[in-house]
Structures are given as structure tokens and as C-alpha cells.
What does this fold into?
Amino acid sequence: MNIFWRELKASRKSLIIWCIGVIFMIISSMSKYAGMSSSGQSMNELMESMPKSLQAIMGAGAFDLSKASGYYGTIFLYLLLMATIHAVMIGANIVSKEERDHTAEFLFVKPISKKNIITFKLAAALLQIIVFNIITLISSILAVAKYSSGEKVTYDITLLMLAMFILQLLFMVIGSALAAVMENPKSSTALSTGLLLITFILSIIIDLNRNLESLNYFTPFKYFEAKNIMYGGSFDIPFVILSLVLIATLSTITFVFFQKRDLHL
It folds into this structure.
């Protein structure tokens, strides 16, 4: 159990910084909505006049930007990007940090199995992404409700945060699996983050070319799109099942390969 608390203590400052960052992003984004809506400028018309490529990058086109919830839908993709980067870095770092920082002897002197070590490490990582998710949820509800003019937003935002949590879990175990498999722990964080950015860029490319929708299964950012959740009111079950299968598989890989690897001092 000491390993669990040690990991939380080591990541405390980083988690606080990430939480402050997501709060600032939500507040600043919704403040821009307030400024644009009070000017009398039609944001829907403004967005329609923009090139399709810019609409895809901004995540717009399917949302009613005259409503606070619609505007929030456009920024959700970037909140999701922020949350998944945080998750994948935690997953990779929490597995590889002892070898990277040459503190592996801390683990060797403990009368505890590698299975328990990785269990405590992943539990600490899980708690951190839960805290990040809850902070994002509360900040989002408060910020959107402030400008929603009576519009009910709690249910939609809660669904979006549940989707975010599933993807946080997925990218966390992607990072941990890569760190457990790779011989060079220093490369795991960069590789897992790079993989995340590639899938994010792929999701934007798919939005630009509908003929590429068959590639949706290769980018988790297409599994839970804000427009489908907010206006459909539910998740796409095949993508939920795929996400859970990937999470279970990658978690198993993390456990198996971590127990097999030699920790270098």
C-alpha cells in the first residue's frame, strides 16, 4: 500500500497543474462564447462561412452555436485531447519511472511481488484520472450552466464525461502496456503520446473526408463523438464494447510483461 501512496505523492503537483489547466481552458472558452453571443453576432453563420477544414479542426458544423451547450460541444474534443494526453503520460510514466529515474532499487527491497507492485501503480494512476475527470465535470457543468439561460446541461455533460473516462482508461493502459513491453523505458512516454496524436489527427482527416469513415475503428477519438452523445442521447454500443475489450487486453499485457521484465538499476 506504501507504493500506492508514494505514487500519489510523487504525482500530486503534476495533477494539480493539469486540473488548473483544464479549469482555465473551460472558463476561458465559455467566456469567449459569452463575449461573442453578447455582441449579437451569429456564431452559426460565422462558422458556416469558414472553410470546411477549419470547421473540422474546431469540431464544429454539427452543433448549434447559439446555445452554450452547443458551443461546449465544439471544445469537448480538445478537453478530451487534454484528458487523454494526461492519462497516457500517467500510464507510461507510472510503469517506467523507476528505471528512468534509476530508483528501481526502491522496489527490489520491498517484500512484495511484481503483480502487487503493478496493481498499486495502476490503482494510483486510476485515481488520478478519476480526480481529473471529476474536476472537469464540475467545472464544465458550472461554466456551461452560467451561460445556458435555463438550458438543462447536466445530463449531456455527465454523458460526455463518462465517455471521456472510458477513453482516459484506454489511453492510460496504452501507455502502461507500451512501457511494460519496451526495453527502453525512456521512449515509452514519447511513443505513447505520439500514437495518441496520430489517432487525433486521423480523426480530423476522417471529418474532412467522409469516404474514410471506415477508419473510425482505428482512432478512439471517433468512438465517442460529442455530437452523437449530445443529440443521440447514448453511446454507440459497438465502440463501447471495442473500448472495453482493448482496455482489458492492454491491462493484461501490462501485468504479464511487467512481471516478466527485469528492472534495471
